[in-house]
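Page 42, continued from yesterday. The earlier attempt failed because a stray header line got pasted into the input along with the sequence. Redoing it now with the clean sequence only.
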Amino acid sequence: MTLVDGPDSAVPQPDRRLMLVHAHPDDESSQSAATMAHYVAEGAAVTLVTCTLGELGEIVTPELDYLRDKPAELGRHRLGELSAAMEQLGVTDFVRLGGDGRFSDSGMAYDEATGFAIPAQDLPDNAFWKADLLVAATELVALIRDRRPQVLITYDSFGHYGHPDHIQAHRVTHYAYTLAAAPAFRPDLGPAWQVDRILWSASPADEMRAMIRVAKEAAADRDDEGPSFFAAYDPDGPDDPPMSTPNRYIVARIAGAPWRSRRLAALRAHRSQITEEGIRWFTDEDHMGPFMNECYVLGAGSAPPAGADDLFAGIDSD
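This time it went through. Structure tokens are written below.
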């Protein structure tokens, strides 16, 4: 255990501390559920920072249609879904950046040419995408200095598929990473803290290619097109799949299979956002295979040793 100096006393903290920065409720369960459950089980401190309440999320469950066009109510509902998901994963430290509702879901549109997400034209006044970068990063600096994580997880610079809030979460995380380590920046927020490593969630190209191939074969057996996101992609062609990362950049993997049931339960908690069909693609071992693993590339800081299955590998816990 590490003694963390507070204003009145030294408070013990676990020697390994992980912080994840996600844009909306459900992002954490679709991308980091196994990672969170794994480190909770190991006794590490796990902090989830969610940047918005997902007030403009696309509702996929008919019985929740009454929440459509009611962003405030949807945000409160999704906070309840997040709480239920965290209970399944064993995470007790989950907070919203700046407090509930400080930054709003920005929504998104789709680029017809690429199929990727782009910023919507009409944004809420407090949309996360429009937030002043220093203001938002300062909120995260306060959390970093308080929790003192050695490892930070967020998205890559494209937010995986272009969602503006994912891109903003990436920017805020990296700016806060720098500011948190600067003693002269806002000393009122606590002593400076240098995070050892930033990791970006990633989908390895080879594993995604294999998953798409199997999924297309299964869809053909059912005489349908399968999920639309890979309908136009040829897994036997020369190009890497969309939303994937070349395997050579993957620096660490967390096995997903041991946490299959917890991941499934966490995903099911987000009923407004994820259908049973969507859950099947995240958890079906016959289709997903190694894609069930949660993989990461290095965003900043020290690299783990090659082939790492521990996000803290190579970091001195002292």
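Notes: DSSP finds ten helices and eleven strands in the chain.
Reminder to self: strip header lines before submitting.
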